[in-house]
Design brief:
With about 55 residues, the protein is mostly helical. The chain is built from 3 helices and no strands. The longest helix is centred in the last third of the chain and has 16 residues. The chain is globular and about 30 Å long. The protein starts with 8 loop residues before the first helix and ends in a 10-residue tail after the last helix.
Length: about 55
């Protein structure tokens, strides 16, 4: 994957735990540069309400 797009909710939603937290790279298996890019994409998606900040119970 060349670029992680914040609008692709299906892909980046896989890197969020059941409580709504971003999974660490030791669980996802993503290299550090892509983990940072993923973190930015997740935060952007949360800020424009594509993803929830917390898990819904």
């Amino acid at each position: 994957m060349d670029h992680i797009d914040y609008k692709d909710v299906k892909i980046i939603g896989q890197f969020i735990g059941e409580r709504g937290k971003i999974l660490p790279k030791r669980l996802t298996g993503v290299c550090p540069p892509h983990q940072r890019e993923l973190k930015v994409a997740l935060k952007r998606a949360r800020n424009i309400a594509l993803l929830p900040f917390a898990a819904s119970y």
